[in-house]
Amino acid sequence: MHARFDASSMSEPEEAAVLDARILAAIQAPKTLDFDALARDLFAYQIRYNEPYAAYARSKGYDAGHLPRRPIDIPAVPAAAFKEAALATFDVARAAAMFETSGTTVGTSGRHYLATTELYTASLLAGFERAMLADGAALRYLLLVPDPREKPTSSLGFMMAAVSKRFGDGRTGWFLHDDGLDLDRFMRDLASACDAGVPVCIAATAFAFVALLDGLAAGERRFTLPAGSRIMETGGFKGRSRVVERSDLYTAISQRLGLPESSIVAEYGMTELCSQYYDSAGSRSADRRVKIAPPWLRPIVVDIDGNECPPGVIGALRHIDCANRSSVIAIETEDLGYASGDGIVLLGRDVGAELRGCSLDAEDLARR
Amino acid sequence: MPKTLPAVNALRERSAHAIVRAIADAAERWHDADFPPRVRAQAAIEARTGFAIPVIEYALDRLFGSLQVRALHTAVEAEVGSLAALDGPVERYGMRVHARGVDTAVIVGSDTTIGVALVPAIYALIAKCRVVVKDRDDGLIGAFFETLIEEEPAFADAAHAEIWHGGNDPREARLFASAQTIVVFGSDATIEAVRLGASTATRIVAFGHRASAGYIRRSDLSGDTMALAERIARDALLYDGSGCMSLHVLFVESEGAEATAFARILAGALDRAAIEFPPGRLAAGSAASHAAARDLAAFRAASGAGTLITAPTAQASLIVDPPRDSPPPLAARIVPIFPVTSADEAADYLRAHRLPLEALALADTDHYLALGEVARAGGAVRITRFGEMQSPPAGAHHGGEPCIMPFIRWIDVER
After folding, report:
1. Is the pLDDT of residue A179 over 80?
2. In Å, how far are A265, B251, B253, B260, B335 from B338, measured between CA atoms?
3. CA A33, CA A22: separation in Å to the nearest integer?
4. pTM for the whole thing?
5. Which end of chain B is least crowded, N or C, by CB within 10 Å?
6. Chain A CB contacts of B209 below 8 Å
């Protein structure tokens, strides 16, 4: 990385504004992005204003006078750290948004504070548009994710609200509530869209899809979605009572909703990230789907010591998200995957996990 | 899995003593580190588990060394009174009683460390049951059964071990439906699936995933802490912490500084123990869990919360004073150390996180009465000394269950 950004004479708001402008420019014109330089400058900014992160960085040997040379050297905080400390570059009492984790970590929720929602919105919209709307389709959004009016701490709800507001036809439906899935209203709205020939985007967590499919099967209901319709599936089954293989889930969705499996796109995101991965267009008909990051988000597959794994070798996923300006740029996860071409193959947490012992593990305990 | 089981079980014609003798003879051959089937099994276990060969050798030495005539006699006699009761009616309580083994027992050994499923299989065979073991990919149980058959051909009718995967095979459903006793090691989901597949009359003995803990009293820290640490190191290091009798949580009755000082001694002991029991190869998921726990501890320590101490040779991490509002990390080669002011505090932590315990280790088991609340809080069924956690004696009641009784139906012949 090469120095080209002198923040020494800037106040925090000034520096944040300059960085935000660079990030927004990168989102709008990715070819202008110098990822390594932006990542380095973001890290330098964050350790000036985010004390818990700065302390962690110091414990790894990095400070303002000794910055990481490469993105992989940027200290990555484990996702669970978001429940240990307010990882923010600003006073969280002034947070524009606060999202809570659910399921990624065990125990109490982690919190991701954002100084502004502008970067998150810009990043998620650009990422969604690249991955889901490459054909420029105007869709009706039928959403089986938390409604942000009921659960403002859901980053997924925030995301889909922004997407549907920006790209939708004004008739967005929210069907997931605290008391469960509003199946009757969903079927009514879906039938209405089908009758009118309006293509839809159904977004849901994998678990919500299972509940939806169970409900449709119970009522012996099938649909044939209008041409151009698509599905965004996200999340997993952690802590849930019923787990379905993803390939089986997609087959069932395809059969019950009448659209090709290649129109089902998996999104991979985390509350701790402002940017998301999606299945690459070229892999949506393949057995192994490859997830692609937008240019301002970089995945690194690492081994137990944090060294980068060669392509094809399974390791833990680390994310460097330049849209995480006001929190932490580098996040370490327990999600497994491997590098493949210009993306990653996500394997979740249980890959190859034929247990070799009878010890309890964290996921076992969480399910009890 | 076997398509059909033999209709005739010649083991029924053998005396229980002869069966025990044959088992002990086979075990003695397997206790020899150069016995070719054992050498082959070791390689297969290493490939499956990634454990270091010295660790596997230790496990096999322990397993087969425990299957001796005297030990098996004692365990059986403790539960059914005498071996003769397995052969036919014996006088007792003014009547004649026969501890007759059930026809068919199934052992599902999906989540055991090394050969743990063999122990219930052995007791089922002593009870003269036909036994079908769902073996691991290393085929250890099947290989031992071959030796048993060499010792006593009648075992061919009774001892079956097969490797199969998944739970959707209709033959598995038929097998479960035909069993009078099913012993299952595995996750809650595995156990639930077995229960659903079994008949209502089937006796199911379930060994779910559990953890184990240790408790060091304040007075223990004024003794030979180096020796104590050496014992604890073995408990923590063997099987990379993946067994239900591995040390997953260590409570130290002390102020934080004393616990940290002891953790440093323990780190040294772990590194020395790793020379005898080198760390194994972790699967990617285990490695990721280890890294996440270690790095979270480093993150907290950087802000002054808790301490992270590493043992580089053992490739282990000791986390002093982890967060109390979370369960322990339960990750490979991670030793969380909780300073506590009293046993009540430890018990409260175990209760708060509903941590199911198999074993509780103490410096001296005579302290059990003072620390019983800790054991009860986690439901521990075994109280042992540090250094012995991974070495339960023959006849131990794993999971709090009897050894041979699950395979027995008493027949009372009244006068």
Report:
1. no
2. 45, 5, 8, 10, 10
3. 8
4. 0.91
5. C
6. 355, 358-361, 364
